[in-house]
Specification:
Keywords: Transcription, Transcription regulation. This protein is an alpha/beta fold. The chain has two domains: 182 residues, Rossmann fold; 113 residues, Homeodomain-like (Arc Repressor Mutant, subunit A, Orthogonal Bundle), CATH 1.10.10. The chain is built from 14 helices and eleven strands. The strands form three sheets. The chain has a seven-stranded mixed beta sheet with strand order 5-2-1-6-7-11-10, sandwiched between helices. The protein has a two-stranded antiparallel ribbon with strand order 3-4. Strand 3 and strand 4 form a beta hairpin.
């Protein structure tokens, strides 16, 4: 087995967890399977960098001295808000030489500034998706997934999603058993699929200002299997259906139907992850009514059927 070199780019203002999260995953893989990875860190001049949280990191070497790595990882952080022409030039020249190009969080901004994401599907931290799309119209930015693969370019969302992406890369390189062993050791259970949304429904939506609408939000969350049509919810809020739909959208940032869809999907997902309940029972208690309706919702939003989604969290034991 050929050893893969992982090179992590360091710069002032970097987010420390964007570095340490993935590095712990790859270090765990090296411990589990000796000779699988060689992990290196480098800054432009080989000088120490100060992270956004105030930690000082000492790189192994200077970016000018490193050969082309197998995997080049660019983390994010506050430092990405200010362009760095020298780092941009280095990424533009050396990024295409890596067999695998990876960004964590706003590290995608660094790659975009170097022109390495043009024409690709990417994601980044939800708070910067709109800016990334606006500043780089040649990139297709998707705000929902926690990570995306487009060819040999991998981009991930905020902070801890870098761990999910690193686990996915280890699984690709060394197999599922190794990735699961690392996930358990790090107490992150099993890795989340890349197309899982960055937000829960409650976090994705704003909290309504008016108490009747807040009460409706709570009711939806606590009763996903109930009648959650606009008419039924409007009656609970003591508003006309038209007034309710308009007010709910204005105060939460999304139409009531979309909020209900997210809550039901999230409820079903949790049951698939955490219980052994049957698909038919989950579809009923989550408000889908039938397994086929739930399957369509999962395929549309997550790209996989409920049974496949469950296998990610409850794999068949090896014999």
């Amino acid at each position: 087995m050929a050893q893969r070199t992982l090179l992590v780019v360091l710069f002032d203002g970097v987010q420390s967890l964007d570095i340490t999260g993935p590095v712990e995953v790859f270090a765990g893989a090296e411990t589990h399977t000796p000779g699988s990875y060689r992990i290196r860190t480098a800054s432009l001049d080989g000088a120490p960098v100060r992270t956004s949280s105030g930690l000082t990191l000492v790189p192994d070497e200077s970016l000018g001295d490193v050969p082309a790595p197998h995997t080049l990882l660019v983390p994010g952080g506050q430092g990405t808000r200010v362009p760095d022409p020298r780092l941009t030039d280095w990424l533009r020249e050396h990024g295409p030489r890596a067999e695998r190009l990876v960004s964590v969080c706003t590290g995608a901004i660094r790659l975009a500034q170097a022109g390495l994401l043009d024409g690709r599907r990417v994601t980044t931290h939800w708070a910067y998706c709109e800016k990334l799309a606006r500043d780089h119209p040649a990139i297709r930015v998707e705000p929902d997934p926690i990570y995306i693969r487009d060819g040999q370019v991998f981009t991930s969302a905020g902070v801890t999603s870098g761990i999910d992406l690193a686990l996915a890369l280890v699984e690709e390189d060394l197999g599922r058993d190794v990735a699961l062993a690392i996930a358990r050791h790090l107490v992150v259970f099993l890795r989340r699929p890349g197309n899982q949304a960055q937000f829960s429904a409650q976090l994705a939506a704003q909290t309504a200002q008016r108490e009747p609408l807040r009460e409706v939000q709570r009711w939806i969350t606590e009763h996903p299997g109930a009648d959650l049509t606009v008419d039924a919810l409007a009656e609970r809020a003591r508003l006309s259906p038209r007034h309710f739909a308009r007010a709910f959208h204005a105060e939460t940032g999304m139409p009531p139907g979309r909020y209900v869809d997210r809550v039901r999907l999230e409820h079903a997902r949790r049951l698939l992850e955490d219980t052994t309940h049957g698909i038919e029972e989950i579809s009923r208690t989550s408000g889908y009514g039938t397994p086929e309706a739930m399957r369509r919702a999962f395929v549309k939003t997550l790209g996989s059927a409920p049974t496949e989604y469950r296998r990610r969290f409850h794999p068949t034991p090896a014999h």
